[in-house]
Design brief:
By secondary structure, the chain is of the alpha/beta class. The chain is 24% helix and 25% strand. The chain has two domains: 215 residues, Medium-chain alcohol dehydrogenases, catalytic domain (Quinone Oxidoreductase, Chain A, domain 1, Alpha-Beta Complex), CATH 3.90.180.10; 149 residues, NAD(P)-binding Rossmann-like Domain (Rossmann fold, 3-Layer(aba) Sandwich), CATH 3.40.50.
């Protein structure tokens, strides 16, 4: 039996990921076998390895990702080439380049989420790639249905970099579309948007704000916040209008002076989502503003409930995006609207080190797992 290499989470950290030789699956029916080009390394993979998300700062209670189990090959950002297809596959051929949509729900016809293209909101059964199905930290990935393979032109989009479209770019794209809807609701044409956390998601968000949202508004000012000077330098290189170094004790008024309106930002997109960044995001908002929580670092905050009414602000969570969103995003990427920043590449055998480097804040932009560096 032919086998392939894959890095698997067999037990929680600090136990390292184990490189396994797994049988190469044969696709059946509507399944597709992908020869993986690259798998993006996401903070969610880190939480997966560390046995879940911190749900409460006080109790340290953790929750596993829906559908997750041990052992599994992580990696939900996957790009590759179609190696084999099942007999029921349509509109997809061997040697096509694809980005994989990982956010798979129950898929049942009577599910009001899956049947309407919102599988990432499925409340019945989540069967996501990299959590339930084996993901991109391996040489092959079996996709359960061909519709989750989004084709792209390798002449227009770097095949390795394409993997990040499946999560970091898709999630921020969804957040930015949501931000635009909030601005339209309040008839705001001159807006300030704050970005907290300039990592893999932050870089994608910054590029999409410039190239997707800015042309839709009369004026857009982008204020980037991070606790690392190096990441703020990257933000400047990527076109941020203002940068703010996050410290333990922030002068929120000085932050607000960097906004178009002296009372604060219209939207803040928190790409970290821990107690300090969520609090900073709320404090940075002007009346009527929206805090969009994207990251999954975890914890909890104390929120005075009357402030929601008196300050008239909203908090909303963003969970990746839909399959139609990914198809739209791939087209934008082929047109050059985003250029993923890849810092480092790791071999499958180096997956544990990749996660450790990510946790230590050593990665600028995104890092990848590749079978051949």
């Amino acid at each position: 039996m032919s086998t392939y290499r894959a890095a698997q989470i067999v037990e929680p950290a600090p136990a390292p990921l184990q490189t396994k030789q797994l049988p190469i699956p044969t696709p059946k029916g509507e399944e597709v076998l992908i020869k993986v080009i690259a798998g993006g390394v996401c903070h969610t993979d880190l939480h997966e390895w560390q046995a879940g998300y911190e749900m409460s700062t006080k109790t340290k209670m953790k929750a596993l990702h829906p559908g997750f189990h041990y052992p599994v090959t992580p990696g939900h950002e996957v790009s590759g080439i179609v190696e084999k297809i099942g007999e029921g596959v349509h509109d997809l051929s061997v040697n096509d380049h694809v980005v994989v949509y990982a956010w798979i729900g129950c898929g049942e016809a009577d599910c009001d989420r899956c049947s309407k293209g919102r599988e990432n909101y499925c409340e019945r059964k989540r069967r996501e790639i990299g959590f339930y199905y084996n993901g991109g930290y391996g040489e092959y990935c079996l996709v359960p249905h061909y519709k989750y393979c989004v084709k792209f032109d390798p002449q227009k989009l770097n095949p390795e970099k394409a993997c990040v479209l499946g999560c970091s770019a898709l999630t921020t794209f969804t957040a930015i579309k949501r931000a635009y809807n909030r601005l339209k609701e309040h008839n705001i044409e001159r807006a300030t948007i704050g970005l907290i956390g300039i990592g893999g998601l932050g870089v994608m968000a910054l590029q999409l704000l410039k190239n997707y949202l800015k042309p839709k508004l009369e004026q857009l000012k982008i204020v980037c916040l991070d606790k690392h000077e190096s990441k703020l330098e990257l933000a400047k290189e990527q076109g941020a209008d203002e940068v703010v170094l996050v410290k333990d004790h922030m002068d929120i008024q000085s932050v607000k002076t960097k906004c178009l309106h002296p009372t604060g930002a219209d939207v803040v997109i928190d790409l970290v989502n821990n107690p300090s960044t969520a609090t900073l995001g709320i404090d940075m908002l002007r009346a009527g503003g929206s805090l969009l929580e994207v990251g999954l670092m975890g914890g909890s905050i104390d929120l005075p409930l009357p402030s929601l009414i008196l300050k008239v602000f909203s908090i909303e969570g963003i969970y990746v995006g839909s399959l139609p969103d990914l198809k739209e995003l791939v087209k934008l990427a082929e047109q050059g609207a985003i250029q993923p920043v890849i810092d480092r590449k790791y071999d499958i055998d180096e997956a544990t080190q990749a996660l450790k480097d990510l946790e230590a804040g050593k990665i600028q932009g995104r890092c990848l797992i590749v079978s051949q560096k």
